[in-house]
């Protein structure tokens, strides 16, 4: 009320001055009007700067956008009541402001005995970040990192296999262009997000245990995390046949996490597909073998597993030399021409007999013949 009265008094004074107008009073009034207009203009400019500051505040504080979706485990579709929410979350933001988008899929398992595990997926938006991933992950099977960006799904096996190399790249302090610096920051953010809050419960648990695995010599592992040890292309050592040294090339695992049937106390064996070379149908070719790992409790050193990385063998060079010589001999025998397949053999052998008359002899006899035979044998 007092402000209104003061404004009225001021207006009356101005009217009186106008009625008693002199050049001096008119100049004073003109100056007052100019000052008022300037004040008004400054106020408008101030409002504009406030709006600009407001827009600046609306810029994303992080380069990752997280979207949470609840899905029906039977259909994989968003639950009806959440569809509009998901759409608004997924579309009401500018994708280009983010380096990547993490979608966490939560499955509503209420009554099914077969629980669908929660998972997540990532859309890489930044082209520079994708090119950085290409550099380290382009060699993996199916070559999904060689083309344009695609959606990648948990447990993000390629990134887990190369995690240490990717982290070293993200922490480089080299003087590169601004784009590369930002790409490394985005890569560090991606690795930290997957490590701490991936949306995949089993993967989050693995990363919590990972420091314990790595601090041991040799490294240790739990049964649930076996897949993290064997990336495609790794040389794996074992002695599955008659205690003889063998090396395989990892093709892929049959499943990431061990499968546990609700009606079973222990999970099924975890299986790894691996290649070896063998003589088959008159030629050498890759032969697929399935390497099995029985369930075990607690942490085990990698070298105590039935199959483990060949790089961990204590006598790696000695075993390599032995296997190369054995392979060369096997190749010479298999590739020998028909007219030269006569070899000297000394060692245990099994006599081929017919009927029951030779059974006792076969079981009791240990024969050490030295003879020439037209039938080759490796064992």
TrEMBL record:
Keywords attached to this entry: Coiled coil
Check the record and name the InterPro entries matching this protein. Answer: DUF7025 (IPR054289)
Superkingdom of the source?
Answer: Eukaryota
Q: Where is this region: Disordered?
A: 37-88
Q: Where is the DUF7025 domain?
A: 214-313
Q: Which residues form a coiled coil?
A: 163-190
Chain intervals with Basic and acidic residues compositional bias: 37-62, 69-88
Protein name, entry field = AAA family
Organism in which the protein naturally occurs: Colletotrichum musicola
């Amino acid at each position: 009320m007092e402000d209104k009265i003061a404004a009225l008094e001021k207006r009356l004074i101005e009217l009186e001055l106008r009625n008693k107008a002199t050049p001096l009073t008119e100049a004073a009034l003109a100056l007052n009007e100019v000052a008022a207009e300037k004040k008004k203009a400054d106020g408008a400019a101030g409002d504009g700067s406030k709006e600009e500051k407001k827009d600046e505040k609306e810029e994303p504080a992080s380069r990752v956008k997280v979207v949470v979706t609840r899905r029906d485990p039977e259909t994989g579709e968003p639950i009806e009541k959440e569809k509009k929410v998901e759409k608004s979350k997924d579309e009401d933001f500018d994708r280009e402001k983010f380096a990547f988008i993490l979608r966490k899929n939560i499955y509503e398992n209420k009554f099914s005995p077969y629980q669908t595990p929660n998972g997540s997926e990532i859309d890489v938006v930044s082209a520079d970040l994708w090119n950085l991933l290409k550099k380290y992950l382009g060699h993996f099977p199916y070559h999904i990192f060689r083309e344009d960006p695609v959606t990648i799904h948990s447990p993000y096996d390629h990134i887990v296999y190369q995690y240490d190399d990717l982290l070293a790249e993200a922490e480089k302090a080299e003087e590169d262009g601004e784009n590369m610096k930002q790409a490394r920051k985005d890569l560090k953010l991606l690795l930290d997000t997957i490590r701490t809050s991936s949306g995949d419960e089993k993967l989050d648990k693995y990363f919590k245990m990972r420091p314990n695995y790595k601090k041991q010599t040799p490294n240790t592992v739990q049964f649930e995390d076996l897949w993290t040890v064997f990336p495609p292309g790794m040389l794996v050592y074992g002695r599955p046949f008659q205690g003889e040294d063998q090396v395989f090339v990892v093709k892929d695992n049959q499943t990431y996490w061990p499968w546990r049937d609700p009606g079973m106390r222990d999970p099924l064996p975890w299986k790894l597909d691996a290649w070896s070379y063998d003589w088959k149908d008159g030629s050498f070719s890759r032969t697929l073998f399935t390497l099995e790992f029985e369930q075990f409790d607690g942490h085990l050193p990698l070298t105590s597993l039935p199959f483990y990385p060949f790089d961990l063998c204590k006598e790696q060079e000695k075993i390599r030399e032995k296997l190369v010589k054995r392979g060369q001999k096997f190749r010479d025998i298999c590739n020998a021409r028909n007219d030269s397949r006569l070899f000297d053999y000394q060692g245990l052998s099994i006599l081929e007999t017919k009927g029951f008359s030779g059974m006792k002899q076969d079981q009791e006899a240990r024969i050490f013949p030295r003879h020439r035979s037209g039938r080759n044998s490796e064992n």
